[in-house]
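pasting for the record
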Amino acid sequence: MKLINIAAEALHEAIPELSLAQVISLLEKPKHDQHGDLAFPCFGLAKQKRKAPQLIANELAETLKSPLIEKTEAVGPYVNFFFKKDTIQQIVVQRILQEQNEYGSLEIGKGEKVVLDLSSPNIAKPFSMGHLRSTVIGNSIANILEKCGYQTVRINYLGDWGTQFGKLIAAYLKWGEEEKVRSNPIPELLKLYVKFHDEASDDQTLNEEGRYWFKKLEDANEQALSLWKWFREESLKEFDKIYKLLDVQFDSTNGEAFYNDKMKAVVSLLEEKGLLVESDGATVVKLEETPSLPPCLIKKSDGATLYATRDLAAALYRKQVYDFSKALYIVGQEQSIHFQQVKAVLKKAGFTWAEEMHHVPFGLLLKDGKKMSTRKGKVVLLEEVITEAIQLAEENIQSKNPDLPDKGEVAHQVGVGAIIFHDLKNHRVNSVEFSLEDMLKFEGETGPYVQYTYARANSILKKGKWTAGEIKKGIKDSYSWELTKLLHEFPVMIEKACAEFDPSVLAKHIVDTCQSFNSWYGQVKFLTEDDEKTARLSLVAATAITIKESLRLLGIQAPEEM
């Protein structure tokens, strides 16, 4: 049951010349509550019926009927719909209480498989705040897809190959000290990486050295391979700590290096199809079909392969192993051209399934309005940020509720939730300004605000000794009606977030739901013993279920008390 469908079906019956889909597309939400829940403009019917829109609106308002519509009113050229608040509220609340955390589940996916390429930090570098966006956006999209009936495969495509490792090996052999690196691996490797780029700006031969050592790594040189493996192992230990804090798991951690033995086959395949051409000593695939795209580099002039070669190998491997219906790449928007090239090469090679490969871009995470850069050492370490967020959350909880049991666990849920929500409430293509202070506020559009609303709803239910039962009477006040409509829209929001690969749809909706609930909370005495008490508490319970499930889909935990 969708409210828009109730109105649309009544209209379609009265004006059969318009299809149901056409009617739905014309219905709109009035700006003011006094104009009802939905409005239908009659301008488009004027020419057809050869009548003034106002006259058509008057005629429709008198004829429209539905057991769930309380009244229809003509206001100028519009027909305004007012639904039976108490009846619809009972239906919505009863459904949520019956379905519990399954509320909002859809079968759009029909069990089809979606692979998601997310997180993908570079080894031998700290897990910075810059990697947070891909991790939490990708994790939430996977949760939403599962809610919509898809199977997901979460792949952490580690950046464990490429010229930068040649540079790091060169830097370590020049300036590195084994003892220092062994005792404090990631910070020391970062220092070497930053030093290399500082020195290389004055000494161009260093970049040549980096390229030389990467070629040796590709040729399985024993010294280069041994250093690379060491750097990789130390990095994975660090990354695992972060993923545990964020409660993010993966089905595969096959990084770029995994595809080293699969790239020759890609080059041979492109050669067999006659797609490879020489260009200034390098090997490329020309993409004339899309004039905006430059040729896709497959091999450099020195024979070394590129990111595109590996991504082509990865796409072919994943299709073979997982037989995906969609492949999503949750990667920064600066990589947009690269993914367009990879997709175009696969399509040119005759792989029609490449049409279902989607780059899901996102904006930058900024600090004081500027991009964070590992090369220049301007990096904010995610583990430090999470630790600080948890500490600040604990201080807030200590001042607000010093007797709260499991303060440490709740502080962890609030601190981590604050960081994730701050990211996901923004549309993913927008850049996000990092501010720990803003993230942790208990008011406004924040994770702690949503979590606190959930805890408040639980507290009301506990005090009211609520138990699920039949709701014999609905509530007619405007505050509870606005909340009911938002709860009713939850499955629609999930469908929209899924279609757009955008968790912010859900984050914004749950903020609206919490604000509506808290407005209602300010107007009503929930525990008053009257004939509406059961209906009130049932609506509170339905709200709590919806908030908790929204947070879960965003990758955030919901503390029972705060």
